[in-house]
Amino acid sequence: MNYFLGIDLGTSSIKAVLYDENFKSIAVSTRDYELIQIKNGWSEQRPEDWIQSINSILKELKNNYSTELKKLVSIGLTGQMHGLVMLDEDNNILRPAILWNDQRTEEEINDINRILGKEKIIEITANPALTGFTLAKILWVQKNEPEIFEKCKHILLPKDYLRFYLSGDYATDVSDASGMQLLDVPGRKWSEKICNTFNIDMDMLPKLYESVESTGYLKEELCSELGINHRVVIAAGAGDNAAAAIGCGVVQDGETFATLGTSGVVFTQSDNIKMDAKGRIHTFCSAVPNTWHVMGVTQAAGLSINWFKDNFYKDIGDNEIYEKIENDINESKIGSNNLIYLPYLMGERTPHLDPNIRGSFIGLSGIHKRKDLMRAVIEGITFSLRDCISIIREIGLKIDNIYLTGGGANNKTWIQMIADNFNCTIEKMQEGGGTTLGAAMLSSIACGKYNDLKEISDKFIFYDKKYIPNETSTDEYSKYYKVYKKLYPALKDINKELIEL
Q1: Which of 100, 157, 182, 411 is the most exposed place for a label (fewest CB within 10 A)?
Q2: Active site residue 240
Q3: Residues whose CB is less than 8 angstroms from the CB of residue 472 and which lie 6 or more positions away in sequence, other chains included
């Protein structure tokens, strides 16, 4: 029996799962680390903390699963995207990593759009310039910490710094690189135009690979410490959502999955590149070789539910709260008694790309109860995700079925609501799946154990009950969705004015 290790370097913790060759989870280990926020809107981490955490995890695996670890044949990497790790010529870390959710780069976004142009940046990178992407972070360092930029010899994404520690290789995969705004996404190569325009030496960038390719091997000294006497392949891996798609079995043209987590994601696989000229959704290279994916993001999906739950369900015990929420939304009705919620607690990404918009209840009156507000929250999140899928369909991708994962997928009423709003069947993932499984699957191909992602997903990924859309409910929801779509333009300027007070 061979074993694969999937590692997910997340924003708040790192998770490693050891799988056997049938992709059964054998061991799970996690470590938390600190998020550094020294100024409002800043978000950083120490890469040294990532290394300390992975060393602790590997030590735990050796102590408890030494027999299995000796048969480890490959490691797959995934994790938070868009972060900036800078190394000098001796591979010393020059500053804390600037993370995906850091918002300090508004001036740099203006510079990118002024110097290169909004249309050109979308043409090359398939996405509009965004504060979270890596290019803007590099430009911020150029402007504000020139002495650090002068010393920089290597630029890496978070998971790829972990790779460097494990193997000594400067490498990344095309899916994660797609979120740097340095990649020619249609051409799957670094963009000379962008690098030359913004004075970035292309030698600083890591070597590009497809996600299923091997980028190197676990260092001999680490193998020795773990009791491994053979070479262990390290796969290129993928960004977190691209890896999650693999772990959900989304590997063929038109296959789609949605995640109901803190944020909400709708992700569609495509054999051909599909881009939105208006920049309302993301288009990235996929973890499936020589393909792409499009993705819409709702910033505050589960976050909206947690906010409402924490403030208005304090009388309900932790063990009963989610059952109570589902009962409450069943006692209300479609449209929540003519109440609409805008889930913009953290601004929005799809389709508005507006950091200043904020959440709202529209239509609130004396007749509304807690159950109506709770249902309105969930309907509002669903309408936001419906925005995502509407754009994906608008640019030419057909969606008939969606695989659903994330904590919200445990609410059967919500799943049916999504089926009715998306007007397609929904299949909930069985337990398991996700980013670490996707990373392990990619590594199993990199080491030669398997040859095809479709073969793996057909054999080892399973789904629960299928939810069918109800035509009557679809029509009823559409009446409220029509009103929902009018609210952002009506409130955009008011929210900006309120923030500026």
Answers
A1: 411
A2: yes
A3: none
On whether both 100 and 55 belong to a single domain, the answer is yes
Q: Two tokens at 261? A: 């987590």
Question: What kind and span of H or E run contains 259?
Answer: strand 256-260
- The 10 Å CB-count burial string (b at 16+, else e) for 77-90 is bbbbbbbbbbbeee
Residue 272 neighbours by CB under 8 Å, 6+ apart: 292
3-state secondary structure (DSSP) of residue 333: coil
Same domain? For 405 and 461 the reply is yes
Instruction: Give the least confident one: 89-98, 320-329, 381-390, 402-411.
Output: 402-411
Q: How many CB atoms lie within 10 A of CB 91?
A: 13
Q: Residue 256 pairs with which residues in a beta bridge?
A: 268, 402
Are 179 and 36 part of one and the same domain?
yes
> Do 202 and 347 belong together in one domain?
no
* One domain for residues 143 and 276: no
- The answer to whether residues 153 and 294 belong to one domain is no
Helix (H, G, I), strand (E, B) or coil at 347: strand
Interval 293-344: pLDDT, tens: 999 999 889 989 999 999 999 999 988 999 999 999 999 999 999 999 999 9
What pLDDT score does 347 carry? Answer: 85
Q: What's the pLDDT tens digit per position in 56-107?
A: 999 999 999 999 999 999 999 999 999 999 999 999 999 999 999 888 999 9
From first CA to last CA, the distance across the chain in angstroms is 63
Domain that holds residue 462: 249-299+398-471
E strand or H helix at 285: strand 282-285
Residue with tokens 């995207």: 81
The CATH number of whichever domain residue 149 belongs to comes to 3.30.420.40
Distance CA 471, CA 463 (A): 24
In 3D space, the residue among 357, 335, 375, 296 whose CA is nearest the CA of residue 483 turns out to be 335
Question: Could you give the number of structural domains in the chain?
Answer: 3
Q: Are residues 143 and 32 in the same domain?
A: yes
Q: Which residue in 102, 169, 184, 240 is the catalytic one?
A: 240
